[in-house]
Design brief:
This protein is mainly α. The chain has seven helices and five strands; from the N terminus they run H-E-H-H-E-E-H-H-H-E-E-H. It has a single domain (5-170, 181-213), classed as Orthogonal Bundle (Arc Repressor Mutant, subunit A), CATH 1.10.10. Helix 5 crosses helix 6. It starts with a helix and ends with a helix.
């Protein structure tokens, strides 16, 4: 699907709210914007304008991944996802897989332990091994949906990333003299900063792409 950071955030929020607050779902543009900009359960934390979210939603509607869902007598347009498990979509996922993909969309690469804890609002996992089994199933499909990342210096567990935005950037540890790999806290902080910078660059590119699209759409034929 080659989804952008903004697109995965919008889809992740729609999936999350459809499960955690079904009485308030589908979401209005205002509610969706607030969900995208939440300070908790989000990585990175964004500050998207309503116009940016609207442009992102419009693009997802064209991709048949989101649809409008105005209720009877309602003047406010609301939106729902068509990402998976819908009548017209081909992607069918178990409840556990939906929870994992949703969390990866909302918070980026995570370990099985982190996914088990953070997805508790969406689906219950009995233990970490159940999360690992679901991740392996998602990784071993004919068209893999997630991938295991190389273990980073200073980390005990591998992290997993979704593949709906292409292959994730992998950071290679820098070897020291004697073939050893630096595993200090300083090096880990440097890697974390680099990962955050890459994410911010991606967000900036998405903003520029949407602005360019708006300019082009507004030009007369």
């Amino acid at each position: 699907m080659n989804l952008s950071v903004h697109e995965t955030r919008v889809i992740g929020c729609l999936i999350e709210k459809s499960i955690t607050t079904p009485d308030q779902y589908p979401l209005s543009l205002n509610a969706l914007t607030n969900a995208c900009n939440q300070k908790t359960n989000r990585e990175p934390v964004l500050d998207l304008k309503e116009s940016t979210v609207q442009d992102t939603v419009d693009g997802l509607i064209k991709k048949y991944l989101v649809s409008r869902a105005s209720g009877f007598g309602s003047r406010v347009t609301k939106y729902q996802h068509r990402f998976c498990n819908t009548e017209f979509g081909s992607l069918k996922l178990s409840d556990k897989s939906v929870a994992i993909i949703c969390e990866l969309f909302l918070r980026g690469p995570q370990t099985p332990g982190e996914l088990r804890t953070r997805s508790e609002r969406l689906c219950k996992f009995s233990d970490v091994s159940e999360v690992e089994a679901e991740l392996e199933a998602l990784s071993n499909q004919d068209e893999p949906l997630v991938t295991k990342l190389p273990r980073e210096p200073g980390r005990r567990e591998h992290r997993y990333a979704h593949l709906f935005s292409g292959k994730p950037l992998v950071q290679t540890p820098m070897p020291l003299e004697g073939g050893q790999v630096e595993t200090s806290d300083v090096n880990q902080e440097r890697l974390d900063r680099l990962e955050k910078q890459v994410s911010e660059i991606q967000i900036g590119l998405d903003e520029l792409r949407l602005q360019f699209k708006s300019l082009m759409d507004g030009q007369p034929e």
